[in-house]
Amino acid sequence: MPLFRASKTTEIPPGEVREFQLDGHTVAIANVDGRFYAIDNTCLHRGGPLGQGLLHGKTVTCPWHGWEYDVTTGKVGASPTVGVSCYRTEVRGDDLFVECE
Ligand code: FES
């Protein structure tokens, strides 16, 4: 899968999550203690934007109705067999890249 440049690493401070458009695909990227995790931005409930949610530890809460996702796995907290796609991230210098379709 191709790598897409998402942002500067400094654009996503520790403890924050942001949404980015990568070649027509929207991903939510979270900074958990300096490590970056990327998941699909679209909540499985009704399509809420996970990249606009709140991050606590490795859990992002959907801003619309509160479903919680583990950003390291994409899984919905209450139902570990259900989740959104995860994407590999890579830091090169000050730039953050995400591998996605
Ligand atoms: S759309 Fe995400 S919890 Fe409802």
Task: Tell me the domain tally.
Answer: 1
- Tell me which oligomeric state these chains represent: single chain
Cα-atom radius of gyration: 12 Å
Rounded average pLDDT: 95
Report the β-strand fraction as a percent range: over 45%
Order of helices and strands: EEEEEEEEEEE
Question: Layout of SSEs?
Answer:
Layout: E1 3-8, E2 17-22, E3 25-32, E4 35-40, E5 54-56, E6 59-61, E7 68-70, E8 75-76, E9 79-83, E10 86-92, E11 95-99
Antiparallel strand pairs: 1-11, 2-3, 3-4, 4-10, 5-6, 6-7, 8-9, 10-11
Bound molecules: FE2/S2 (inorganic) cluster.
FE2/S2 (inorganic) cluster is lined by residues 43, 45-48, 62, 64-67.
Structure explained in plain terms:
The protein has strands at residues 3-8, 17-22, 25-32, 35-40, 54-56, 59-61, 68-70, 75-76, 79-83, 86-92, 95-99. The protein has a single domain, classed as 3-layer Sandwich (Rieske Iron-sulfur Protein), CATH 2.102.10.10. It is mostly beta strands and 101 residues long. 0% of the residues lie in helices and 53% in strands. A 6-stranded antiparallel sheet has the order 1-11-10-4-3-2, with no helix packed on it. Strands 5-6-7 form a 3-stranded antiparallel sheet, with no helix packed on it. The radius of gyration is 12 Å and the shape is globular. 34% of the residues are buried. Bound molecules: FE2/S2 (inorganic) cluster. Residues 43, 45-48, 62, 64-67 line the site of FE2/S2 (inorganic) cluster.
